[in-house]
Amino acid sequence: MATLQLLWFILLFVLLIGYAILDGFDLGVGMLHLWAKNDRERRVSLNAIGPVWDGNEVWLLTAGGALFAAFPAVYATVFSGFYLALMLLLVALIGRAVGMEFRSKVESPRWRAVWDVIFSVCSFLPALLLGVAFGNILRGIPLNATGDFTGTFLSLLNPVALTVGLVTVAYFAMHGALYLAHKTEGPMRARLAARVPALWAATVALYVVAAGATLYASPWLYRAALGNPLAYVLLPVALVSLYAIRPFAAAGRYDRAFAASSLGLGSLIALAAVGLFPTLVPALNDTTLSLTAHNASSTKPTLTAMLIIALIGMPLVIGYTFVIYRTFKGKVVLGEDSY
Fold it and tell me: Where is 279: in which H helix or E strand?
């Protein structure tokens, strides 16, 4: 049973890492959308992510399904406690998709400008909300003896969570700029290249602040991480990856810079998972009330059945993702069927 719980804890964070890396650059491109110089550049941005954005969001849906199946008590606590935030997230994700699809339906500058704003705002909000939610998990939330959230929506907007939310926004914006620079050329690529250093500096600075705030609020998180040998692998990988983004981007190797950004993002989330394990929802008021992989999991038959399904489904998802990215590799070329 303990082995199954460990496997599902790992699988859940693998799905979250996959979502952060893949949909992270989607959201970043959306946040940068209004910075484009003209309509053609905005169309290039949309078509850079057009073939892949919906597949990227599957990772978030799969993570939610995995949480529901493997750790139903955690699912109940998180989705009830973060209800308003999750509804805002859902509305933003819907608005983002609608903005992409409706933008080019009418040949009107005003029509397109409205949908451009909706698309960009609805890309910013998910990044912020997901970061704030993750920040609250790192900090801990108030729970009662039955695992119910006892705080309020405003209590979720604490300094630690907001700082992690800003880190997420800055990182995703940088991640998106690197992806977009890799997919474009000419003046548009040059302007994106000029923004990367500032976005990189903002990401690093905010991460340092967030790390300090988390250390102050949740010292147990760091003690647990440093007590695990994996942390001494993940931390250097994360730091080296973050550092490598800048020289790769300066050399115009945006493919390598994007790979370094992806590796850094995945390493940072994995490092947080190492610090949290086996806790999934830390209780801020009393650590004995925390929901863990051991006390909040489904039964052994359920975990076993779901693992079999995951072992069949995950290779299909990964294979599909590989084929799509390979099919649409290269620079963006606008055509009659483009957004």
Answer: strand 279-281
| Alpha helix ranges (H) inside the chain | 2-31, 39-49, 53-70, 72-81, 83-102, 109-139, 159-183, 187-217, 219-226, 231-250, 254-276, 300-327
Check residue 82 and report its DSSP letter. T
Distance CA(168)–CA(20), nearest Å, equals 9
Q: How far apart are CA 223 and CA 193, in angstroms?
A: 39
**In the chain, pLDDT over 90 holds for what percent of residues?**
66
Distance CA 15, CA 152 (A): 28
* Residue 230 near residue 136, CB atoms below 8 Å: no
Integer CA distances (angstroms), 152 to 77, 87, 281, 282, in order: 13, 15, 16, 16
The pLDDT of residue 283 is above 90: yes
Cβ-contact 8, 296 below 8 angstroms: no
* Gyration radius of the chain's alpha carbons: 20
Cβ(158)–Cβ(17) under 8 Å?
Answer: no
Rounded Cα distance between 138 and 132, Å, is: 10
User: pTM of whole model > 0.90?
Assistant: yes
Q: How many CB atoms lie within 10 A of CB 57?
A: 18
Q: Using an 8 Å Cβ cutoff, are 199 and 170 in contact?
A: yes
Residues contacting 239, CB < 8 A, separation 6+: none
- CA neighbours within 13 Å on the CB side: how many for 99? 25
User: d(Cα 250, Cα 200) in Å, to the nearest integer?
Assistant: 12
C-beta neighbour count of 229 within 10 angstroms:
9
Structure tokens at 299: 């039964």
- How many residues appear in the chain? 339
Residue 320 has a pLDDT of 85
